[in-house]
Specification:
414 residues; Growth Hormone, Chain: A; 0% strand
Length: 414
């Protein structure tokens, strides 16, 4: 399939290994969202403490930061399929223990944190393996399919999770999450063929050496550095999710409005992924990365004027759509730019930074919003985004000019 050849969703789903990986991830994502709802309800029912409930939710996300740094390199030193399967089995066992009635809360917190910790090597192995399963432009379209699926699963998991947990009880819901991990591991083991470790024995580094080498690779390479910055920028811009409740209060909305604001980014992301991968040619995508990053900041600027609910929903969905296109193409270019034997570690470092930005930006924006107002804060975030996006876009343009063969897809076999 040569340069510029259109790749369809059908051609991606024709790859059996991708179907297995896609199905496994969709199962895990839906199970994780159900588990977060179940944990929140379980902890609040037993403690009546909002603080402990919030801590439990944070523990489903935060430890993946450390896992991304220290465990991602395992997917370079060992066969990636096996890393994914072992990660799934470990997470199934851990969440099954959480599901046991009467488990002491200190132990529940540790177990939940470990589940998040072991998510990192799974994700790093998955993202590092996917280019081998989907070579060339198949990878970009596959990333688009993943985005649509994961955003849909996230919305469905949150929306249906509360209803399902109320019908079956939180412990059973957590048990179902454990089963989804086992099903995910089985799909990967049976549906993805074995490949040896990307790093040869002579190339394998210690955990400390792998982290240092991966971080040095990103820091010293201008192209990789710009791609990481653009990815983190996309995560920074979605502060409107964390500020949904105070934002809707300022513009005169109620609880339904909060839900709509929270749904705007997943919906926009799904649409953006679909449009970008289906109707933008492979040869144009790398060149659009910088302009799309700049454009994703612009919808936040009208928030200075405190627009109504409908306009806000459209603006945030548009920002999410443009930001998702940046993430998809950034991932494709990042994959091309990193040597295979360091790909998982580099991915882990990049994703850990992205998770940090996702966690800290709403907190910092909330502190600012207490002083100047929520609508103004989101507008300020858009301005800060432009300050970052414009020079990053210019730097990326220079990378495309100086190293066109490295950053532009040529054939599917690359």
């Amino acid at each position: 399939m040569g340069r510029g050849t259109h790749v369809t969703f059908r051609s991606v789903f024709a790859v059996g290994e991708f179907r297995a990986m896609w199905g496994a991830e969709a199962l895990s994502q839906a199970g994780d969202q159900l588990a977060r709802v179940a944990l929140a309800i379980l902890v609040f029912q037993r403690t009546d403490s909002a603080a402990l409930t919030g801590l439990t939710y944070a523990l489903t996300l935060a430890p993946s930061f450390l896992g991304g740094i220290f465990l991602s390199g395992l997917a370079d030193r060992f066969p990636r399929r096996e890393v994914m399967v072992v990660s799934d089995v470990l997470r199934a066992l851990l969440i099954a223990l959480v599901a046991v009635p009467g488990m002491p809360f200190p132990l529940v917190f540790v177990l939940v944190a470990l589940v998040s910790f072991f998510q990192a090597p799974f994700k790093a192995a998955q993202l590092a393996l996917l280019p081998a399963v989907l070579p060339g432009d198949l990878f970009v379209v596959g990333m688009g399919i993943r985005t649509v699926t994961m955003q849909t699963a996230q919305v469905a998991g949150f929306a249906g999770g509360g209803v399902l947990v109320s019908l079956i009880n939180p412990h059973v819901a957590l048990g179902l999450d454990a089963i989804t991990f086992l099903a995910s591991g089985l799909l990967i083991r049976l549906g993805v063929r074995y490949r040896p470790a990307a790093a040869s024995k002579a190339e394998r580094l210690s955990i400390r050496g792998s982290v240092g080498t991966g971080a040095s690779l990103i820091w010293r390479d201008r192209g990789l550095r710009v791609l990481v910055i653009l990815g983190w920028l996309s995560a920074f811009l979605i502060v409107y999710e964390g500020l949904a409740a105070p934002y809707t209060d300022e513009i005169g909305g109620g609880t339904i409005a909060v839900g709509l604001i929270l749904a705007s980014d997943p919906l926009g992301s799904a649409i953006g992924a679909l449009v970008f991968t289906r109707w933008v040619s492979p040869t144009r995508r790398p060149r659009l990365l910088g302009p799309l990053a700049i454009a994703s900041c612009l919808p936040l600027l009208p928030c200075f004027l405190a627009p109504g609910l409908v306009v806000s929903f459209v603006l945030f969905a548009l920002s999410g759509a443009l930001g998702t296109a940046v993430i998809i193409q950034g991932a494709a270019s990042f994959t091309r730019g990193v040597p295979d034997q360091l790909r998982a570690q580099a991915w882990g470092i990049s994703q850990s930074g992205l998770a940090t930005v996702q966690g800290l930006s709403p907190l910092l924006a909330g502190l600012l919003a207490d002083q100047v107002g929520t609508t103004e804060t989101i507008g300020v975030v858009g301005v800060i985004g432009l300050v970052i996006a414009v020079p990053a876009a210019w730097a990326w343009r220079r990378c495309l000019t100086t190293e066109p063969d490295r950053w532009h897809a040529t054939t599917d076999s690359d």
